[in-house]
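Page 42, continued from yesterday. The earlier attempt failed because a stray header line got pasted into the input along with the sequence. Redoing it now with the clean sequence only.
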Amino acid sequence: MRRGSTVHIVLVIATILVVVAAAVAGVNPIRQNINLGLDLQGGIHVVLEAVDTPEAPATPEAVKGAAGVIRTRVDQLGLKEPIIQPEGNNRIIVELAGVQDPEEAVELIGKTAMLEFKNPEGETVLLGNELKDARAGLNPNGTPEVHLTFNPQGAEAFKQITTDNVGRQIAIYLDGNLLTNPVVKEPIPNGEAVISGGYQSLEEAENDAILLRSGALPVKLEMMEKRTVGPVLGEESLQKSFKAGLIGIAAILVFMIGFYRLSGFIADFSLVLYALLVLGILAIFQATLTLPGIAGFILSIGMAVDANILIYERIKEELRAGKTLMAGIDAGFTRAFWTIFDSNLTTLIGAGVLYYFGSGSIKGFALTLSIGILCSMFTAITFTRLMLRSTARSQLITNPKLYGA
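This time it went through. Structure tokens are written below.
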């Protein structure tokens, strides 16, 4: 056997072994880095209602703005794929998965977060809407504090306030609660201030910093409903989905080998690699997986198989037309490419529309489906072609019947 053929055989075997080893070794790391959504691991479901006040009427625009502020706060908490959406004209639904401290999370998202600076006469001289940033930290004594940075307008106003009140106290309130009441020693022209002395822990200071960074709610919100969602149904659904997925994938693997023989065997390893790529990408970005997301993943598996079938049917046509094995493989891939590209492109457009206009689990479905489509195109066009060409060049198996013809 020629040296080149031996190299190709070794390449094929090594590639198969690498894919199998990666599948076995990658299960636990992937599982640990993929988050589960509310429907799979439980969390909290909160319904907030906007209430009219003389200062801020509960208009639909104000409710929409409040939903945006809440989303910013939730993002600051580091929670993945929350569901935050207005309901009707005056309600907001918030669903958070995997919350470690539900009470703290609910308290944080529902606070008005109105920051006020008051002079000794009790007059409000500056509001928190002039803030640019707020960060929690520890001072040299190890005491938690929050560092405030004002925007240019706020910095100028703060400079004037501290200039007018040297030797006097400026009280800082958050939602009417006194945080600190320091004495102004000298004018502060750099637009920076510190809230200290009122925090028991760095976490408490960080929560206030999150509130201040996200801004004040444009309308008062009252909690109408709060419940903890257990993962019992989610676990059952996850197990059923996992079982259904395994049965479906096993049936696909058997079908591909039975119908396309050696080509089907290569396609099966291509599908294993495809699944690893999709789950690996989800794990790298620590994505949140929901039941719709699982549905998108399973749907994309079907599309990955469809791409291989299109390629193999084209190859069979070329071999039946009398072309050599290598020429048939090249021609089959070339003729099938644009069909695969067109079908996947239209699905990607649909997934993009779902992602743009959808929210929560709908976005999860669209994102998982899109990742799956892109990975399926990669494995079908590159990996499957590499394996088929390497096998054909090795001249180990040249019978067209073993390639499905």
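Notes: The longest helix spans residues 361-394.
Reminder to self: strip header lines before submitting.
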